[in-house]
Amino acid sequence: MSKVSKTPELKTKAELPPTPKKLCNWVTNNAFDFLGKGIDEFQTDSKYSVIHFCTGVELFLKARLMKEHWSLVVRDMNKADWNDFIKGKCNSVTLEESFLRLAKIANEPISQKKVFMDLADHRNRILHFDHELNRNVPQALRDVASEQCKAWHIIKSLLTEHWKEHFKQLQSKIDELDLKMRKHRAYLQVVFESDYESDIKEEIAQGVIYNDCSSCGNHSAKVMVLLEQPSIQREMCKVCGYDSYPYLVFNCIQCEGKVIFQDENGSCEKCKKEYDIEEVKDILSTTHEGMRNSDIAFTDWEFNCSWCDGYHTVIRNNESFICLNCLEDSDRIESCGWCGEGSINLQDFSGAFGCSQCEGSVGYQLGKDD
Ligand SMILES: [Zn+2]
Ligand SMILES: [Zn+2]
Ligand SMILES: [Zn+2]
Ligand SMILES: [Zn+2]
Questions:
Q1: Does residue 109 have a cis bond before it (omega within 30 degrees)?
Q2: Ligand 4 centre from 257 Cα, in Å?
Q3: What is the pLDDT of residue 320?
Q4: In angstroms, what is the span from residue 359 Cα to ligand 4's centroid?
């Protein structure tokens, strides 16, 4: 009998060493899993719901960082080692470090960080202390519903807007989670009807404006007008506490529909035309004709914002100077005592401490001494 020569067996797909892309997909899948689990457990196992939901959110941030490069989720990037990483031997980034890396490396600052920090604080309180959820305090469950509604609203808009190009193949999974979140909204609707509806109706009768809350869906988002013209508004939901942060409202140049502009982008509610910061600068900037609120003459009409460190994000609109990044406004532009750049919200002693664009004389001296 002739011997059959044995050919080396081909490795199955599962045995092949992971690639960065594969690892990123695992993290993404886990993010969906944990978040989904957290949503499911909301009323049955609220304690675990808080923990799983928060883990899911952190995994989404990590997945987004890994889309840039896997080493960005390693806490000490200088020690990032692929072979250790695939064995799970590394300390990963904290929530706060994730925000910082998303802003500085991926150029994707997250404006509503506090919502995520609150989730993490809540999880830590549950892990380390006796918690109200253990004693079935109704307010504690309400807090979980509110926190998760707010966080999901933000994660969903990141996945479908800012991060769309990275997660667009996962739309059906996103829709699935959105469907699950309906239970939270139904729960908060009961809270709205029992505790808030009649007071809000009275306020509306007195002229206060309420919108539907984009987080919990109730007609409980109180509109505050921060600036009349152009209109900068902010909404705060009485039921879930969702704070919209300021947004700009103006009429669409194509169809006169309402455009809501925030986080450097916006779109028309009617014709869906999209607006970026450059286009809004063109629409809202008024012509430069000498500053009434400042005695310094500027030749340029794009200024900086010392509040958000935006470079040339500030426009002049009649008597107001508005930063199109953070939507802070001011009635005056000040000139930096060191570099001369015009800014809103300039800190005192700018000659010594500089502005968002320069280090000031103190920083200059320190740099020279090094
Ligand atoms: Zn709400
Ligand atoms: Zn339009
Ligand atoms: Zn700003
Ligand atoms: Zn300066």
A1: no
A2: 39
A3: 86
A4: 7
Q: Which ligand is nearest to the CA of 324?
A: 3
Largest CA distance in the chain: 104
Its pTM stands at: 0.75
CA–CA gap between residue 67 and residue 58 (Å, rounded):
14
- C-alpha to C-alpha distance for 201 and 249, rounded to whole angstroms: 24
> Is the pLDDT assigned to residue 6 strictly greater than 80?
no
Instruction: Find out whether 125 and 131 touch, Cβ atoms under 8 Å.
Output: yes
Domain ranges of the chain: 17-180, 206-281, 286-362
What does the pLDDT read at residue 288? 53
Residue 112 — pLDDT band, cuts 50, 70, 90?
confident
Distance in Å from the first CA to the final CA of the chain: 82
As a whole number of angstroms, the distance between CA 329 and CA 316 comes to 10
CB atoms within 10 A of CB 293: 13
Question: What is the Å distance from ligand 2's center to 267 Cα?
Answer: 8
pLDDT digits (tens, 9 = 90+) for 309-348: 888 889 888 888 999 988 999 988 999 999 999 999 898 8
State the pLDDT confidence band at 61, using cuts at 50, 70 and 90.
very high
| Average pLDDT over every residue of 172-182 | 92
Q: How far is ligand 1, taken at its centre, from the CA of residue 237, in Å? A: 5
- The alpha carbon of 314 and the centre of ligand 4 are apart by a number of angstroms equal to 15
* DSSP strands (E only) in the chain: 210-211, 221-227, 231-237, 247-251, 258-262, 265-268, 274-276, 303-305, 310-317, 320-323, 329-330, 334-335, 342-344
> Relative to the alpha carbon of 356, which ligand is closest?
4
Burial of 169 (0-12, 13-18, 19+ CB in 10 A): exposed
Nearest ligand to residue 240 Cα: 1
Cα separation, 191 vs 184, whole angstroms:
11
Give the distance (Å) from ligand 2 centre to CA of residue 275.
10
% of the chain exceeding 90 in pLDDT: 50
